[in-house]
């Protein structure tokens, strides 16, 4: 999807992060805002939408299924909802690009349509496991083909009807939970999903905002099919997953004092704050309020002396996307940090355990990959000057994490294969440079 395949970041060493900024809109919420407003009745107005490639893949998919969508224009989108049964067959496969959320959630939403549809993705997405959604959807009566390895393309065939199931997730995954709940909108009876640990609950919250009843009974979320969603207005908070790079960066860079505005602090997403605080970070939540059904705050972060910790396993699902940034903080902490119970990191946009361990090792840090986590011994970052750059493996969060490592490096740091930063954080280079990171991007 992205034109330059070897976009490189060069980071000049040192500096502090100071000032204030608003990182772009939340990616998870942006996807859901398009999906739900498309199948709602009437018009929805969205503000703060993330204009990154992943959320745009979702938006384009719905346009191609006949939904009229105005924008995005400076984060504003107007969606003319077609109702639960109003989507039309697209004129060919829908390309989800790099976006696991688009593919897994749409597998559920499209399983009960009256037309066939195929979902494709880029090389990384085509390696990621899809049986975690196709198997439970099959239990509901869906017909979804995968490759022999259980990967995309997903070939969805129409079926006469879906039936609600009661499903216990085998991995804590908001994508799987959401996929089943979205299929449940089209299913007869009740669809219930029980999670082994709390995962992000944006789907449940947003369905409620669209007037669709969702019940929560302890670890189980459930709904009945056949209801209606009513168009509404949504304001999307800044993405805590994008803020995470600055939380870690300002914590490690001497002399930093940064205010991150209007960041989503949904309790299912705040693992990065809890973990960094556990390491000694100086993070304050100011002016807590609610925005579009989601809690937000301005977050002030100042430099702190960090110490290594054993990361509590219950924080893993709450910080699942933020570990690359947390690992950079751990590498600057005194002593050892140990993460376990996080094997899911191996099947993200890249194998984030191995790729982070390789990059940290490249910078002279002792980082030992474990089957389900990593052990990092805090030390001093070296530099990539005069040698091979760090390889981001097309993974946006790896690229941005090593960019902030430059704040504490002994010399310049170059990172290759950074173009996918565009998937979640358009404008990262300019925003980061604006608060003090010595970053430049160049197409190679
Ligand atoms: C997401 C859920 C998480 C997360 C992903 C976004 C979502 O994935 O890593 O970036 O929006 O539901 P898993 O469900 O695979 O944990």
Automatic annotation (TrEMBL):
Reaction catalysed by this enzyme: 3-phosphoshikimate + phosphoenolpyruvate = 5-O-(1-carboxyvinyl)-3-phosphoshikimate + phosphate
PANTHER family: AROM/DEHYDROQUINATE SYNTHASE, PENTAFUNCTIONAL AROM POLYPEPTIDE
GO cellular component, one term: cytoplasm
Keyword terms of this UniProt record: Amino-acid biosynthesis, Aromatic amino acid biosynthesis, Cytoplasm, Transferase
Gene3D superfamilies associated with the record: Enolpyruvate transferase domain
Source superkingdom: Bacteria
Binding annotation for 3-phosphoshikimate: 27-28, 32, 173, 175, 321, 348
Source species taxonomy: Bacteria, Pseudomonadati, Pseudomonadota, Gammaproteobacteria, Chromatiales
Descriptive protein name: 3-phosphoshikimate 1-carboxyvinyltransferase
EC number: 2.5.1.19
Annotated active site: 321 (proton acceptor)
Pathway where it operates: Metabolic intermediate biosynthesis; chorismate biosynthesis; chorismate from D-erythrose 4-phosphate and phosphoenolpyruvate: step 6/7
Stretches that traverse the bilayer: none
Biological function: Catalyzes the transfer of the enolpyruvyl moiety of phosphoenolpyruvate (PEP) to the 5-hydroxyl of shikimate-3-phosphate (S3P) to produce enolpyruvyl shikimate-3-phosphate and inorganic phosphate.
Subcellular location: Cytoplasm
GO molecular function, one term: 3-phosphoshikimate 1-carboxyvinyltransferase activity
An example Gene Ontology biological process: chorismate biosynthetic process
Quaternary structure, from the entry: Monomer.
């Amino acid at each position: 999807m992205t034109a330059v395949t070897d976009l490189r970041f060069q980071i000049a060493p040192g500096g502090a992060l100071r000032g204030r900024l608003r990182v772009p809109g939340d990616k998870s919420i942006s996807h859901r805002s398009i999906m739900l407003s498309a199948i709602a009745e009437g018009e929805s107005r969205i503000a703060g939408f993330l204009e990154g490639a992943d959320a745009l893949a979702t938006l384009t998919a719905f346009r191609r299924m006949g939904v009229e969508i105005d924008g995005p224009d400076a984060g504003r989108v107007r969606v003319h909802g077609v109702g639960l049964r109003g989507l039309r067959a697209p004129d060919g496969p829908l390309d989800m690009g790099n976006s696991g959320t688009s593919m897994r959630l749409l597998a559920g939403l499209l399983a009960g349509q009256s037309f066939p549809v195929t979902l494709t993705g880029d090389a990384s997405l085509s390696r990621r496991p899809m049986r975690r959604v196709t198997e439970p959807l099959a239990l509901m009566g869906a017909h979804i083909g995968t490759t022999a390895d259980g990967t995309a393309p997903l070939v969805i065939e129409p079926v006469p009807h879906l039936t609600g199931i009661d499903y216990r997730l085998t991995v804590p995954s908001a994508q799987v939970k959401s996929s089943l709940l979205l299929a449940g909108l089209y299913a007869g009876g009740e669809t219930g999903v029980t999670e082994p640990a709390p995962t992000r609950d944006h789907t449940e919250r947003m369905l409620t905002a669209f007037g669709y009843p969702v019940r929560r009974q302890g670890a189980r979320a459930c709904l009945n099919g056949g209801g209606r969603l009513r168009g509404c207005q949504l304001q999307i908070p800044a993405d805590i997953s994008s803020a995470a790079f600055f939380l870690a960066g300002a914590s490690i860079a001497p002399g930093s004092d940064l205010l991150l505005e209007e960041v989503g602090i949904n309790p299912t997403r705040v693992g990065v704050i809890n973990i960094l605080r556990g390491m000694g970070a100086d993070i304050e939540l100011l002016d807590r309020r609610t925005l579009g059904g989601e809690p937000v705050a301005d977050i002030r972060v100042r430099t702190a002396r960090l110490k290594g910790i054993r990361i509590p396993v219950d924080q893993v699902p709450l910080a699942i996307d933020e570990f690359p940034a947390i690992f950079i903080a751990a590498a600057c902490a005194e002593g050892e940090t140990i993460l376990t119970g996080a094997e899911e990191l191996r099947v993200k946009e890249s194998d984030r355990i191995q790729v982070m361990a390789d990059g940290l090792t490249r910078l002279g840090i002792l980082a030992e990959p474990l089957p389900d986590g990593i052990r990092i011994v805090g030390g001093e970052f070296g530099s990539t000057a005069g040698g091979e750059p760090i390889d981001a493996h097309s993974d946006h969060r790896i690229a941005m994490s090593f960019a902030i490592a430059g704040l504490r490096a002994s010399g310049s740091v170059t990172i290759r294969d950074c173009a996918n930063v565009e998937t979640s954080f358009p404008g990262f280079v300019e925003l980061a440079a604006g608060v003090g990171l010595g970053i430049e991007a160049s197409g190679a």
